[in-house]
Specification:
two-stranded antiparallel sheet; 73% helix; two-stranded antiparallel ribbon
């Protein structure tokens, strides 16, 4: 039992911290701060989606905001037409997953190189951005919902209790749902990475040719991972739209895609905790800088990004696990070694 707990200490620590934040933040924060914390949690879910396909699958998606925006629009159109958020949230995950699977089929089975995968995904999100921007007329509608063009879709209902649209979640309930989703997504991805599929996916990232030589279908594994990442990004898009009660074409923008990549670079690629930390840290920094007029926020964010790329290229999480934790453990062992050292005989 002790060996099991020790070998899974990081999982237990993440679970305890997650539950503590789930219970403690609504009690400690005022309403405005809790709304901002909810947004950070949604961004953390979005960061996990790219962390899975880039950090473990080696698929760098420059246009990840396409799945985020598609999930947001799918939720908005669905909930305004149906009046219930349950099925629209499922659609917000299914449509981006289908788009990712379709794109992945043509990219991976055509043996397109990693650079062109990034270019194709970036092109797709630009297409979405321009197409949705040009749907401002009243003739562009899905069901009873006009797409609104560059004005977006306002007055989107928030989440309600499943299949009960009369009971809408309050801000505390919305925060609890987002935190639970974040915890579930994190542990689901950790479990997936411990399965044979996850180990093969990591091996593909390291050496795709050798994995195929051993008999595994690298294209299928990358396709499934890409679809899972798209579904999680769509889930984050749906939650974002429910949180903001609004969605606009900026969800498809290149800036949004770049932000997700920055979150991973700051937190650390190849981990799941790091991108969560990076998303929360950068989102908090962006919101804090937006309230001051002294220095342009983009200049500070660009400086932070350059500093991390040049000085901490692996990100925050690997520095903590590879350097800080071993150093703290060495400090703990040192007094014990001194105590057990042989004593000289007194004269």
């Amino acid at each position: 039992m002790y060996a099991f707990v020790r070998s899974n200490a990081s999982l237990f620590a993440v679970g305890v911290i997650g539950i503590a934040l789930l219970i403690g933040l609504p009690l400690a924060l005022d309403l405005f701060a809790l709304l901002r914390a909810t947004l950070y949690v949604i961004f953390a879910i979005l960061a996990l989606s790219l962390a899975f396909i880039w950090g473990y699958g080696g698929i760098l998606c420059f246009g990840h905001s396409a799945f985020f925006g598609l999930g947001g629009y799918a939720y908005a159109v669905g909930v305004l037409n149906l009046g219930d958020s349950t099925i629209p949230m499922a659609i917000a995950m299914a449509l981006p997953a289908l788009l990712a699977a379709t794109l992945g089929y043509f990219m991976f089975y055509a043996r397109i190189s990693d650079v062109y995968v990034g270019v194709i995904t970036l092109t797709v999100t630009l297409i979405f951005y321009n197409v949705v921007n040009s749907t401002a007329g009243p003739q562009y509608r899905i069901g009873d919902v006009p797409l609104g063009g560059f004005n977006g879709i306002p007055n989107v209902p928030a989440l309600n209790v499943p299949f009960n649209p009369d009971v809408v979640l309050d801000p505390e309930g919305m925060f609890a749902v987002c935190m639970v989703v974040l915890i579930l997504v994190y542990f689901a991805l950790r479990a997936l990475l411990r399965m044979r599929f996850g180990r093969v996916l990591v091996a593909i990232r390291e050496n795709e040719s050798r994995v195929e030589f051993l008999g595994y279908d690298a294209r299928l594994h990358k396709l499934i991972a890409f679809a899972i990442g798209g579904a999680i990004a769509g889930l984050a898009g749906g939650l974002f739209t429910a949180w903001a009660n609004f969605i606009s074409p900026t969800a498809f923008s290149v800036v949004q895609s770049a932000q997700i990549i920055i979150w991973l670079m700051v937190g650390g690629v190849g981990t799941l905790v790091g991108p969560v930390i990076g998303a929360v840290l950068i989102a908090w920094l962006t919101a804090s800088l937006g309230s001051q007029q002294t220095i342009d926020a983009n200049v500070i964010l660009g400086t932070v990004l350059l500093a991390f790329v040049l000085l901490v290229p692996k990100g925050v999480a690997p520095i903590v696990t590879d350097r800080l934790v071993p150093w703290l453990l060495s400090l703990r062992r040192w007094p014990i070694a001194v105590t057990n050292a042989p004593q000289k005989d007194k004269p």
